[in-house]
Amino acid sequence: MPLITLNGPILLAGESLSGPIAVGGDIVRIVMPQKWDSANLSFQISDDGQNFNDLFTYHGREAMISVVPGTTVVVPDALSRSINYLRFRSGPRSHPVPQTEDRLFAVIVEQGNKATTEDWPQ
Fold first, then answer.
1. How far apart are CA 77 and CA 115, in angstroms?
2. Which residues contact 75 (CB under 8 A, 6 or more apart)?
3. What is the SS3 assignment for 117?
4. Which of 14, 32, 56 is nearest to 107 (CA)?
5. CA distances from 10 to 2, 16, 28, 61 (A)
6. pTM of the prediction?
7. Which residues contact 102 (CB under 8 A, 6 or more apart)?
8. How many CB atoms are closer than 10 A to CB 104?
9. Residue 76 pLDDT
10. Are residues 41 and 105 in contact, defined by beta-carbon separation less than 8 angstroms?
11. Which residue in 81, 77, 40 sits closest to 62, CA to CA?
12. What's the CA gap between 22 and 115, in Å, rounded?
């Protein structure tokens, strides 16, 4: 399947939550900004781009990844499938960390690979 690079989302200076980005496929990688105030990266997802929920694993833990500025992170399949809209949060939901400058991410997406309920284990 083809890989598409989406420029964004952007986390604005003084904020801890980015604007939304329409994903349109399975997230493969996230390119981290060149600068970052120390914090993990957590996520919110949405089906409609309006109503967002915090992303948790099936183990009941908030989905978070460490940010190493200027690097690319491969996203595990279990966290990346079937996301329509995505927002990034600096820090966990219990303690968001505002960034001191605008932070631009890139999201690499594999298109045409949406999961269906037939993909779920019985």
1. 11
2. 27, 28, 29, 30, 65
3. helix
4. 32
5. 24, 10, 18, 25
6. 0.84
7. 10, 11, 12, 13
8. 15
9. 78
10. no
11. 40
12. 16
Q: Partners of 56 in the beta sheet?
A: 62
Provide the residue type at 62 as one letter. Answer: E
What domains does the chain contain, in order, with CATH numbers? 3-113 (2.60.120.260)
């939550």: which residue's tokens? 17
| Distances 85 to 48, 80, 95 between C-alpha atoms, Å | 7, 11, 22
Amino acid at 80: S
Residues 90-102 pLDDT 10s: 999 999 999 999 9
